[in-house]
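Reading group handout, session on sequence-to-structure problems. Before we discuss, look at one worked example. The prompt was deliberately terse, the way you'd type it at a terminal:

> structure Adenosylcobinamide kinase

The input record follows.
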Amino acid sequence: MKQIILITGGARSGKSSHAERLALSLSPNPVYLATSRIWDEEFRQRVLRHQANRGPEWTNIEEEKELSRHTLEGRVVLIDCVTLWCTNYFFDLEADTDKALTAVKAEFDRLTQQDATFIFVTNEIGMGGTSENLIQRKFTDMQGWMNQYIASRANRVILMVSGIPVKVKDEK
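And the output record:
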């Protein structure tokens, strides 16, 4: 049965850890769909640590943009994270908010046509102050609109606050 779960919150709020525990509670062999690009050596080390922390029960897929090209029928799929996924579209489309948002929404729709359980991890980057940087403001807008798009289609939305999951939406 298809299900969409969105887990959101601030930096270091426990989003990924909670999503991993949830995925493992739903499947003995979930898929970890990582959307990150490697920007520098520090980030490469961060990715390697994350990979090492996951056990052999995980199927790991690295995919920057075209998530729907993977066949995931019947699987529990953790997508970590929407923010980095949106970043890839945003910068590849030269910070054109409308084009990037249209492209990532279309890819989300293609991905979630599959009969699978999708757990999306995202950041609430708009909860802080307004940036003085135009590119950051444009990205914050795009990210917020994408979060709203996913949340409107999600069966469940969980907000992580200091490691504590708070149910925002729960439609069975």
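Points for discussion. First: Helices lie at 15-26, 41-53, 82-92, 97-111, 134-153. Second: The two ends are 11 Å apart (CA to CA).
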